TrEMBL record:
SMART domains: Iso_dh (SM01329). Its cofactor is Mn(2+); Mg(2+). PROSITE patterns: IDH_IMDH. Keywords: Magnesium, Metal-binding, NAD, Oxidoreductase, Signal, Transit peptide. It comes from the Eukaryota. GO terms for biological process: isocitrate metabolic process; tricarboxylic acid cycle. One of its GO terms (molecular function) is NAD binding. Residues 1-19 form the signal peptide. This is Isopropylmalate dehydrogenase-like domain-containing protein. Belongs to the isocitrate and isopropylmalate dehydrogenases family. Residues 13-319 form the Isopropylmalate dehydrogenase-like domain. It holds the Pfam family Iso_dh. It comes from Zizania palustris. The keyword Transit peptide applies.
Length: 323
């Protein structure tokens, strides 16, 4: 399923060339608020993901400080998408300050500051509630350690600010520690978020798998994207209840370049690769992945974010040619 029309045409081209045997159900964001979801996200699109248990979504914009409920929040809540997995790897041939970034952020996806509980206490004073529950913290910690174990990773770092938010982040850490005890083969450490940011920009190879509450995950994963060349490059996958896997790029709707055929489709294509691995279409996933890496490494067709002048469609065509 694809919730955004812009990239779907290009994506279908790549999938066709790679011979991916997938039948798509396409769903688009509605033009009116659907009373059943209280957002522009239609009930039918949610049902489609529930039924198929797998999907690929495009970025969805949310107005700042006003308007309807965030589409992404609706999606995460309704589908119980509790963990967002965001791998971040240096791309061979594309030079940045570091050539050895190889880490994965795992973001709790359903609560924290994103619980949507904000109100005005009195005029001029507003309050936002940060919710941390034992259930959601254990669930995401369990996912992070399981991910580390099954993906040959050696260490999980829990990122927090429990020195200040002693109750909320304190509970999150307590849950991580409990889960860590079940995985003695995986090293476990706790890092305060501000120190983590400094360490990441100084030496990203210090980190392996990072697990953290919602807001920190949102910020840290963009920071990590910056380490390897930007948001045009980083994929993600949302893991949900009942084995749902909903892949999406880390980036948003990029309003400054939207509709101009300038966006780098790598992040979305790599997200599609994650989805294909989930479906066990490993051969096709690897072929697409290698074609993307070759295209970037050759450097003939790079989009503007990577210093080139190729359009989105030029880049995609080059990927298809490499497949
Ligand atoms: P953004 O990720 O859309 O853009 C940030 C910067 O990265 C911009 O300069 C943009 O041009 C660049 N960029 C993003 N994707 C790119 C790509 N594929 N190729 C090249 N450059 C790329 O973040 P924003 O501007 O803060 O948010 C815009 C909208 O997107 C907001 O409404 C926000 O709520 C929404 N958003 C949605 C998601 C999602 O759907 N998962 C994620 C983040 C933001």
């Amino acid at each position: 399923m694809c919730l955004n029309s812009k990239f779907s045409f290009l994506l279908f081209q790549v999938f066709n060339v790679a011979g991916v045997p997938i039948e798509w159900e396409e769903h688009y964001v509605g033009t009116e608020v659907d009373p059943r979801t209280e957002s522009f996200l239609t009930w039918e699109s949610l049902e489609s993901v529930r039924r198929n248990k797998v999907g690929l979504k495009g970025p969805m914009a949310t107005p700042i400080g006003k308007g309807h409920r965030s589409l992404n929040l609706t999606l995460r809540k309704e589908l119980g998408l509790y963990a967002n997995v965001r791998p971040c790897n240096s791309l061979p041939g594309y030079k940045t300050r570091y050539d050895d970034v190889n880490l994965v952020t795992i973001r709790e996806n359903t609560e924290g500051e994103y619980s949507g509980l904000e109100h005005q206490v009195v005029r001029g004073v507003v309050e936002s509630l940060k919710i941390i529950t034992r259930q959601a913290s254990l669930r995401v910690a369990e996912y992070a350690f399981h991910y580390a174990k099954t993906n040959g990773r050696e260490r999980v770092s829990a990122i927090h600010k429990a020195n200040i938010m002693r109750k909320t982040d304190g509970l999150f850490l307590k849950c991580c520690r409990e889960v860590a005890e079940k995985y003695p083969e995986i090293a476990y450490e706790e890092v305060i978020i501000d120190n983590c940011c400094m360490a990441l920009v100084k030496n990203p190879s210090l980190f392996d798998v990072l697990v953290m509450p919602n807001l920190y995950g949102d910020i840290i994963s963009d920071l990590c994207a910056g380490l390897i060349g930007g948001l045009g490059l980083t994929p993600s996958c949302n893991i949900g209840e009942g084995g749902i896997c909903l892949a999406e790029a880390v980036h948003g709707s990029a309003p400054d370049i939207a509709g101009k055929n300038l966006a780098n489709p790598t992040a979305l294509l790599l997200s599609a690769v994650m989805m294909l691995h989930h479906l066990q279409f490993n051969n096709q996933a690897d072929r697409i992945h290698n074609a993307i890496l070759q295209t970037i490494s050759e450097g003939k067709f790079r989009t503007a974010d990577l210093g080139g002048n190729a359009s989105t469609s030029d880049f995609t065509k080059a990927v298809c040619d490499h497949i």
